[in-house]
Amino acid sequence: MSNIQTSGVSSERRVAVDATLQEVRAILKNNPVSRESLKFITVRLEALAQKTHLFLPADFPAPVAEETTETATRYHLNPADADDDIALYLNAINPGKTTFPHNHTTWATIVALKGHELNRIYVRTDDKTDPEFASLTLLEEVTIQPGTSIAFLPEDIHSIHVTGQESTLHFHLYGKPLETLTQRVGIHPETGRIINFNASQMAPSKVVP
Length: 209
Known about the structure:
The protein is an alpha+beta fold. It has helices spanning 2-30, 35-49, 197-201; strands at 72-76, 87-93, 108-114, 116-124, 136-144, 150-152, 157-163, 168-174, 185-187, 194-196, 206-207. Helix 1 (2-30) packs antiparallel against helix 2 (35-49). The protein is globular and about 55 Å long.
């Protein structure tokens, strides 16, 4: 009986994810990527986040501290789609996790199912002529939680800081799969040193059929 229920939820989740991504593709087909069009995309993803029974923390767990040094698990929800197509992930992150400020080189939107994720948004203030160093100024802080989402254009820069006492479960939707975004940069917040973010900071995703 349990296997039947699990299979049923998996099938319903697949249908819901595919339908949401089709709606996102329709928005992109008819609108250039902009902060305004990303608002419409975010609304579609927020509707998917309301289907909490399809994305239970028990099915998408964060790492167990006693079993691994990893602090986050990224689940790829549409791995069968092409490398030049949109990509949806479900991130389960433990409290205390932080990232270097980084860009994405494609648009992105983050929607929460549970947990708090502080996003620090930066503006780059140097002239970008030095490929190894950058200067950042903190622009604002936004805590992503159920009911509060955020979206980014390709060269926007942010860092993630998981606050609170519980792990997060957040959708991250990108214009292309993260694994293909090999030119993303991260910036050391204290020294300004530029790194290749994917090569040095990104762990592999877990594939969800």
